[in-house]
Amino acid sequence: MTAPLPPRDFPRVRASHEVPEPLRNDVRVLGEFLGRVLAEAGGDDLLADVERLRELAIHAHSDPSSDALAQAEELVGGFTLERAEQVARAFTCYFHLANLAEEYHRVRVLREREAQVAPDRFAPDDSLPAAIQQLEDEVGKDVARTRLQELEFRPVLTAHPTEARRRAVSRSIRRISELVAERDVRNIGGMSLAENDRRLLSEIETLWRTAPLRQSKPTVLDEVRTVLSIFESTLSDVMPAVYRRLDDWLLQDAAGTTAPVARPFARLGSWIGGDRDGNPNVTAEVTRAAALMASEQALVALEASARRTGEGLTLDGTGTPGSSELNGLWQRQRSLSDEVAARAGAESPNEPHRRVVLFVAERIGATRRRDADLAYANPDELTADLLVVQRSLAEAGATRSAYGDLQRLLWQVDTFGFHLAELEVRQHSQVHAAALADLEKNGVDGELEPRTVEVLDTFRALGHVQRRFGPKAARRYIVSFTQSPEHLAAVYQLADYAFAGADERPVIDAIPLFETFADLEASVDIMEAALELEPVQRRLAQNGRRVEIMLGYSDSSKDVGPVSATLALDTAQAKITAWAQRHGLVLTLFHGRGGALGRGGGPANRAVLAQPAGSVDGRFKLTEQGEVIFARYGDPTIAARHIEQVVAATLLAGTPSVERRNTEATEKFTELAARLDVASRTRFHELVRAEGFPQWFAEVTPLEEVGLLPIGSRPARRGLSVSSLDDLRAIPWVFSWSQARINLAGWYGLGTALESVGDLALLRDAYAHWPLFATMIDNVEMSLAKTDERIAARYLALGDRDDLAGQVLDEMTLTRRWVLAITDSDAVLSRKRILGRAVQLRSPYVDALSLLQLRALRGLRTGDAVEQADDLRRLLLLTVNGVAAGVQNTG
Prior knowledge:
Helices cover about 65% and strands about 5% of the residues. By secondary structure, the protein is mainly alpha-helical. Among the domains are: about 210 residues, no CATH class; about 120 residues, Up-down Bundle (de novo design (two linked rop proteins)), CATH 1.20.1440.90; about 180 residues, no CATH class. It has a 9-stranded parallel β-sheet with strand order 3-2-1-9-8-7-6-5-4. The N terminus is likely disordered.
């Protein structure tokens, strides 16, 4: 059967009516202030042009049968390039303001909800206390507490893609957000409101006048600094805050008066400065520098936290005497430096705990400065000193001091150590193969290729980082395109070449990255053979038989399409999990999920709950890339919620009910999965393997121009020209389709696959009872919500290939029809009130920017305005920023 075709979109008026009054007021104020800034900066005629385009775009969206879109296109075509650029910047500024208003409203709602509802009353996948309660109900309290102790959450921060917006723009947005919060929290009026208005106008003017494009690409160390700013602003405080909230719930009235129940479960990782796969800008020197920068940030934060904690311990020694153990620690501290001890003692008259912790703060500072006389050798030494203080306070009856701020400091040391985030190295297997061939031919002391020298220097950089900060700071070495056990063996062989003896070699865990469809299918065979490698056996004996395997979402999707990639990843995880269980291995699957849906994005907590039985087992590791880092971790309240949701799902994934549901669904829908796989993959390959497709793709999207955009240090391609998609990175593949309002990477092939099944009752049953399928359908629905057939058709027409354009548009229509039928919806996201409202209200404004981008693309593609090429390219790049802000994803 063929599913009925519901109306294309629900009325925009309905979406606008759903906007909560506080959010509506914030957007109104910000919009009015932006209008004032535009009129002051560009005159009333600029504001009039912006308003005319805005009105036409809204009309075109609410009434697709009208000629409003054609009128809007005609208006854009009549702008001078200077005016087009001004209008593009105006819409981009609007999106930044709308986004920050929505983000703050999320914070507002979260705070209100937490004030009204107990944590364990939320849905289990939405609250860590509720998840623990369900786990206890299913497996008993003792088992639940054991699993809580073994829990691991490892977000790995990556730089690709860095945000399309500049750091200066991000800082301006943050200042405006603070002013919006000030209006709300303080309920200000009178002169205070007037002052807030003045400052808001000033900041919005700054945002408008700040150049939206970087003058040059950021360096790798610029990317490191950008991500470190997130640690400074939120993560250093959020992680212990999450632990505290959990402790408050678990211990209830005893919270803060006794030792915590759960140990810290989050550990940060980073690829920034370590990921050299296809990025020649990441050198051994850069890796060392990145590690030092992260350590500096960690130690600065720890020193400040220790000093703050110490200054608060003003407990008099008469009523709260120090233990003999504390006195012994003080004597050891005095022997390290009489000067520091005298200073700490002078600041703390008869305050034994305060003086010891102030001395600890001095030692942390000395560690940062590399003062050998005072420095801690490692974080364990620091933890040992702090535990002495904690035990002394507890013995003296000052339990709230023992388990208050001091416990927060202990959590920070445990979570971040002296290295902040584990720096992970990644390199392509073929680079290793070439380096080994060079070394076998010429010897380690011979005339080697520069790239071989750099490979060896990378291992030496790992050794340097480990000598300075310990093995936890950098020991994971990820091998891109692992296609044989020899690719893992190469890591250990190269390490042998880089160091003179076994004693000098750093600790290394070679981690395979299975990316393509074929590699995922061969993963178990590769790992079975890898177990026979002597270095692998040695590491398993040392680390408690722990194994990590990374799964690539983006390259597999580009290889066989999003549907087949999703199914292949699920099958591979199930097989790898069974393999690990057979060999008694402790398995961690590392999910290379990007922010965009075409790269494995979507709600992480729902993805965790859809994993095969046994594959999570209390451990979840994933990549968090550029724009997603700021969206998930940029605000403390949102960051805490994201961490709690993912961790809750990680616990729930191991409950008998969830594992049983996923196993039964996989068995029940095996035949359906096979049919979806074959049909979707065939349809995808018909498009991407068509004669001339790569060149056409570059014509109908801003692929080449995206490569010019200075948004990241990494090249857009690993080296091949646009005549081949094989080596095109997944980032520009996804980014370019999203810019053209097509989002092909997130849904193409699904419509044909669903049509080939044709059984709506079966598909609705799968949607209701097969979590993997439901997650895929919901993610496709989100992707489709950001597409627009009319805009897409205009991009596709640039390529003069009606056959390929027709395939894309037909598949888009077919996919939309089936997704809406399966979800029993009259429009995309009609069942998701908040997300639907956000997308629907943005869409007309994104349409306006898309029309401006199309004007620039047409001029560049036809070559009719050669003398204006630079201006057209600049306009196009400006609109790329705006569209990215509007659809809220890049690649």
